[in-house]
Amino acid sequence: VTLDVQAICQDTTVTQELLKEGFHRDLLVKVELGVVGEDVGGCAVAARTRLPPGIYVDPYELASLQQHNLTKAVLIPDVIDVEAPEYLATDLLILLYMEPDPQCSRCFRAALPVHGRYHRPAEDSEEALVVLKSPEVLVCCCDNRLSTECWKSAEVEAPCSGKNVGPCQWYSVRHQPTYEELVLQVPVGLRQHSSLVCVVTLLATVLCSSLILAAVCKYGHFS
């Protein structure tokens, strides 16, 4: 019996990656469950992660992706100010549902588009660092009697999958992240450039306003 429990309680492996460049990225999460000798086909796996104020998920973009069955996630809070800068934003909690990886029976993966927020201008660096902690791995085996000796109950008010009406029992899985933290580099402006930016912005505004006014005077019809 001892050998069986040790086999079941192997560490789960978690990997996070940020794809693309700039402000608009894709967060890719991969999980390999540390359960050996048991069928996890009837289980739902999710990654619960907290995004810091410097990065966010667009709820309208997420709704469109979910409508086309391209991803599934729960946002807390579900109302997000996508225009707020980093210093006026708050943390965001995400429950990201994962899909089975066809190349591995115990592997799951999910991708989610994320966006960097604007930061305050910096003194001497053209990049701000946004740190993403390793997510918590949650498992819900509503249709499968899987051994849970090395798992602990997790308070999650969310269904196991889109097919479930009400919440079910989730378990938090002991895991070993490939990297404890993932760092996103967000471009920021330099404070010594603020005067130049203001002058250029003012000149561009005056020029565009003049062109619009000239076009209205030339082609407009006034009664």
TrEMBL record:
Q: Which UniProt keywords apply?
A: Endoplasmic reticulum, Glycoprotein, GPI-anchor biosynthesis, Membrane, Transmembrane, Transmembrane helix
Q: How does it sit in the membrane?
A: Single-pass membrane protein
What top-level branch of life does the organism fall under?
Eukaryota
The residues that cross the membrane are 194-217
Its UniProt pathway annotation is: Glycolipid biosynthesis; glycosylphosphatidylinositol-anchor biosynthesis
* GO biological-process terms attached to the record: GPI anchor biosynthetic process
Gene Ontology terms: cellular component: endoplasmic reticulum membrane
Look up the signal peptide feature and give its range.
Answer: none
Q: Where in the cell is it found?
A: Endoplasmic reticulum membrane
InterPro entries to which the protein is assigned, alphabetical: PIG-X/PBN1 (IPR013233), PIGX (IPR040039)
Q: What does this protein do?
A: Stabilizing subunit of the glycosylphosphatidylinositol-mannosyltransferase I complex which catalyzes the transfer of the first mannose, via an alpha-1,4 bond from a dolichol-phosphate-mannose (Dol-P-Man) to the glucosaminyl acyl phosphatidylinositol (GlcN-(acyl)PI) intermediate to generate alpha-D-Man-(1->4)-alpha-D-GlcN-(1->6)-(1-radyl,2-acyl-sn-glycero-3-phospho)-2-acyl-inositol and participates in the sixth step of the glycosylphosphatidylinositol-anchor biosynthesis. Probably acts by stabilizing the mannosyltransferase PIGM.
Similarity comment: family membership = Belongs to the PIGX family.
Provide the protein name.
Phosphatidylinositol-glycan biosynthesis class X protein
Originating organism: Chordeiles acutipennis
